[in-house]
Amino acid sequence: MKVVRFIFENHHLKNFIKPHKIFLATGMFFGILFLLLTPPFQVPDEPSHFFRAWQVGHGIYFNKTLEAFIPENIVDLASKYLYKIRNKGEKLTLSEIENDLFYGESVNSNRLTIISSNASPYTPVQYIFSGMGLFFAEKFNLSALCAFYFGRFLNLAVWLGVITLGIYRLPALGWEAVFLTLLPMSIFQGMSLSADSFNNAVCFFLFFTIFRIYFNSNFNFYDFILATFLAAVAGFNKQIVILPFFLLAFTYNKFPSPRLFILYFVVSVVLIISASAWPLLNNFPGIPDSVLKEKMNNAFQHWYNPFFILAETTIVKLPGIARSFIGKLGWLDCILPLWTYILYFFGFFLILTILCRTDFKNLFHIRLTAVFILLLYYCVIVFTFYFLLDTEHQLVAAGIQGRYFLPISAIIYFIFSKYKFINSKFYSKLLSYNIYIYIYIYNYTNRINNFCINNI
Hints:
By secondary structure, the protein is mainly alpha-helical. It has one domain. It is about 60% helix and about 5% strand. The protein has helices at about 1-10, 20-35, 45-55, 70-85, 95-105, 130-140, 145-170, 175-180, 185-190, 195-215, 220-235, 260-275, 290-300, 305-325, 340-355, 365-390, 410-415, 425-445; strands at about 65-70, 90-95, 110-115, 330, 335, 355-360, 420, 455. Strand 4 and strand 5 form a beta hairpin. The protein starts with a helix and ends with a strand. Mean pLDDT is about 80; it is low at about 420-425, about 430-435 and about 445-455.
């Protein structure tokens, strides 16, 4: 304890021990380690995201159907690794990966095949950087697997850069932000080809900008413009994540006049909703109309059925949601040790009940609004999965996962913050950083076999 206190309080180390620097160093080290240890296509839906990134990298920005024309050899590559992953008796070997990485065929855009991909109608913004990686890898005649890893690397770099900048701009709650953004599931998504890599980074940056607006006593119109821009980008990618923007409704006292605030807020809401409306014009990859009609009849057969769906889903799925929020890796089949989840939730408990402090005014109204936003977000997620994505007929949203709550997870600091609490900066640093070091060292060195690799 004395050594840790010396490190955090030493004057010469003070400039380095900053939340954004610690996040960048820790996230970069474990992100690259995670990128290398996670075999190709062993992130949920990563093949579909790989195909969509190739489309965006080649100028196919808008696609209203699930059908997509994709190079044959990258479809074959994804199929090969998916077969190994889904047949648990077979394991990948390093020699296989090395052979595909250094001697495999490069992406051949002249031979295309038509496939069905759930990510095909997704908006292009979230694939800009991974698409660039695939495009330049193809231009330099690199192997298809090398292009895959290059896309992962660019996603990780953008994820690190965006969140680092957001934490750097925070005048407070920096260490609490580090604790949240370095969750195993967060970094697992951040280093992948998944669209959630970019989406989560933008949503974290949006929250940190809102925090900055609340913490700053002086009016800074650039922060408000940035919040509008981030909310529009986030909404363009995933509509439901625009909800936290409405927390700015309580910042009217920071504007020079109420009229200017009303003008800003109305214009911002119109822009954000307009950006969010575009993806709705695409065909949503849902279930057949006959199944949807049957589920609608089941759900509204009695007035209390929607409440029953929410309650049943919460009771049945809450343990799984909690675990996959902290981290269920691979194709959600790599479960971390039980003590890992206990330690993380113990850390959250300490932060939310003791350490997290703010100078928010109107704390009760902010907290009430944050609770309403979180409940509304949860309801939308549950009913989206129940009506549009699940094909099972019971009154449970079977496909709901904890990783879908990462974009809005920072709202818990609005809900549980204490007004002008005691100075606990040292203990916050100790909790948010050192616990992570021990957990990551354990999990990323002793759970490699769960990533289906032999001969390490």
